[in-house]
Amino acid sequence: MSGKGRTTLRLDKALTHLGYGSRSDIKKYVKQGLITVNGLKAKDSGMHVHPDTDVIMLDGEQIRYREFIYVMLHKPPGVVSATEDNRDRTVLDLLSPEYLAFEPFPVGRLDKDTEGLLLLTNDGKLAHELLSPRRHVPKTYTALVLGEVDDDDVKRFAEGVTLDDGYVTLPGELAVLERKREGEEIVSRIELTIHEGKFHQVKRMFQSVGKKVIYLKRIRMGRLNLDPSLKLGEYRELTEEELALLTGAQD
């Protein structure tokens, strides 16, 4: 996915980048005859290879090189959107070592109790462009809200609401999907698209109209949708088509 087919790299650098060991480990594998490049045994761990096009095998396993990774995670509740935390599990704790070798980080954050689509990558340029306040990349959520969300709320969200600190949000697109009575309470199931990412924004927007979010899930970022087949805590790399949708969100 890096799109750098003409670039050459030292063999040991390419393999250490992918988490296959230190440079001295790679040197040892070469001496043991465990690494082949295009069917020929590598003689020098410092040889230059075209990692995107050369067929590199390590102990019978083909190495798939890429400079950047783009991982879609269905974030579960109870996990924090951070690279490290002293108290709670982080989203990185959900990833296998082969992905951790790339040193990915979450693009933006979801609250600890919020679930849904979270992108993890080591592509700082893309992350910056997706998070830039000037870009207004849309994010869509589904939520359960305590109280009857009505047409007045839809209208107020469309105009932008004033948060508890006086900030007036950009217009948001609110749709009421269902209302049902649970005991004494009415619970509304809604979908909301916002174009910025203030702290606890969705919860604070509903708070501003006198209602409380009791469940929140992000289902879309830009034109990238959460894969419905991913269970909570599951993840996978983006397809080329999905990456194109995501980079198109910057346009």
Question: Key terms for this structure?
Answer:
29% strand; 4-stranded antiparallel beta sheet; 251 residues; alpha+beta; 7 helices; single chain; 9-stranded mixed beta sheet
Could you give a short description of this structure?
The chain is of the alpha+beta class and 251 residues long.
SSE order, one letter for each helix or strand: EHHEEEEEEHEEHEHEEHEEEH
Q: Please bin the fraction of helical residues.
A: 10-25%
Beta strand %: 25-35%
Q: How many distinct beta strands?
A: 15
Low-confidence stretches: 1-5
> Largest beta sheet, briefly?
9 strands, mixed
Description:
By secondary structure, the protein is an alpha+beta fold. About 20% of the residues lie in helices and about 30% in strands. A hairpin with a 2-residue loop joins strand 13 and strand 14. Helix 1 crosses helix 2 (about 25-30). It is elongated, with a radius of gyration of 23 Å. Mean pLDDT is about 90; it is low at about 1-5.
